[in-house]
Amino acid sequence: MNIVLLSGGSGKRLWPLSNDIRSKQFIKIFKGVDGCYESMVQRVYRQIKEVDTNANVTIATSKKQVSILHNQLGDCIGICAEPCRRDTFPAIALATAYLHDVQGISEDEVVVVCPVDPYAEQEYFQALKTLAELAENTESNLTLMGIEPTYPSEKYGYIIPESKKQVDKVKTFREKPESAQAEEYIKEGALWNGGVFAYKIGYVLQKAHELLDFEDYEDLYDKYETLEKISFDYAVVEREPNIQVMRFHGVWKDLGTWNTLTEAMDEFVVGKALMDESCENLHVVNELNIPVVCVGIQNAVISASAEGILVSDKEKTDNLKPLVDKIDQQVMFAEKSWGDFKVIDIEEDSISVKITLKPGHQMNYHSHNHRDEIWTIISGEGKTIVDGMVQNVHPGDVITVEAGCKHTLIADTELKAVEVQIGKEISVHDKQKRVLDI
User: Fold this and answer.
1) Could you write out the DSSP letters of every residue in 180-241?
2) pTM, to two decimals
3) 40 touches 24 (CB < 8 A)
């Protein structure tokens, strides 16, 4: 089974846990089978592999998310990175060309496309496999999964089949409606459009060549910034007369707000928190190493991270984004392919950062023009390379890197360090990758 997971961009609806780099699908908030916390993307990837251990999973994403995907899923995951955002049709066209031209998958093979962040049980992932089988043995050009609606939602588009059979031809589509109109659609047997569909690679390649001027994957990648922003639904689905839909009756949730996210949480507290008996329907997610104490709070969510602290009535979390848009600060926490970093102090001419490297990983070899850096090793063992000179490091060691020096930090075991950046023009853009040749 070939699966393309669409991994969206940044998000602020789950601030302070989500930011410009860490979207909601990367927040570790669900208990995994081993008792450790896992993110939505880790959960979905695990569930796919439990249904089909040989599934070929490719994640279509932005360049910003490549590092965190490697951090959470490992280095062997297939990734099709967009040079920039151009909505879902260019993203799916690029991913399809990647499967065909780079991975060498035949035009006759089926691909299932779905979002990277649904909250669902195993029956949903078994249904993806059934969807692929339907697409392989049908004359329809597209096979959609329609979610049985549980209420007249205004958040989803609607698929209206010709009948109420389990699998049937699609009669028409409806855009996101008002609640009253959604009720009428449901009476007609309409299904939520959850963005899940299957097709043969050759079909989407043909559509892509009809609508876009390109030769192959590399050519499409090079021209990507010039492409029109357009959704797959509008460019292909709504214009295709030969579509079938399969009904899905099981658990499926879009965890796009704090209210819906807390409904799916296994426990009321993640991290350090204490609440008294008068607290009701309260969820706390605390990523800071300090306790949160709650007294007499009801129907609320409290979240604390390096980005900030949120205290909100659960029913009001939809109003979060306009307030967060007013916040202007650098990203305070990020996961990278080699580990993660957390900003712990900001002064006018200095920034202090706690860095954690995973065993066997290293930062890129790089330099800065406008800042000096001082590393203090606080735990673990590894090596530094500064202008080609290799030095073993242990807890308590201090390494000074002057502006212009090429440098990297390598972890033999898990390695933690405090990095102090000193300079008048400290910026994330002041970084030049270098070739390590020793």
Assistant:
1) HHHHHHHHTT-EEEEEEEEEEHHHHHHHHHHHS--SSHHHHHHTGGGSPP--HHHHTGGG-S
2) 0.87
3) yes
CATH 3.90.550.10 residue spans of the chain? 2-254
Number of H helices, E strands in the chain: 10, 30
**Cα–Cα distance measured from residue 306 to residue 22, given in angstroms and rounded to the nearest whole number:** 12
Task: Give Cα 328 distance to the centre of its chain.
Answer: 22
**Which secondary-structure segment (H or E) carries 93?**
helix 88-97
Closest residue by Cα to residue 131 from 117, 111, 115:
111
Query: Cα(97)–Cα(91) distance, rounded to whole angstroms?
Result: 10
Please name every residue paired with 258 in a beta bridge, in sequence order, or none if there are none: none
**What is the greatest pairwise CA distance in the chain?**
72
Strands 280-286 and 298-305: parallel
- What span, in angstroms and rounded, lies between the C-alpha atoms of 8 and 226? 20
Rounded CA-CA distance 405/327 in Å is 34
Please list the residue range(s) of the chain that carry CATH number 2.60.120.10: 338-433
Q: Tokens for 71, please give them.
A: 């951090």
- For each of the chain's 438 residues, which pLDDT tens digit applies? 999 999 976 667 889 998 777 888 999 988 888 888 999 999 999 999 999 999 999 999 998 899 999 999 998 899 999 999 899 999 999 999 999 999 999 999 999 999 998 899 999 999 999 999 999 999 999 999 999 998 888 888 899 999 989 999 999 888 887 888 888 888 888 999 989 999 999 999 999 999 999 999 999 999 999 999 999 988 999 889 999 999 999 989 888 789 888 988 889 999 999 999 999 999 999 999 999 999 999 999 999 999 999 999 998 988 888 898 898 888 899 899 999 999 999 999 999 999 999 999 999 999 999 999 999 999 999 999 999 999 999 999 999 999 999 999 999 999 999 999 999 889 888 999 988 876
Three-state DSSP at 262 gives helix
- 137-171 b/e (C-beta count within 10 Å ≥ 16 → b): ebebbbbbbbbebeebbeebbbbbbeeeeebbebe
Kindly report the CATH class assigned to 338-433: mainly beta
Tell me which of 1.10.260.40, 3.55.40.20, 3.30.70.260, 3.90.550.10 is the CATH number of domain 2-254.
3.90.550.10
Q: List residues bridging with 247 in a β-sheet.
A: 146
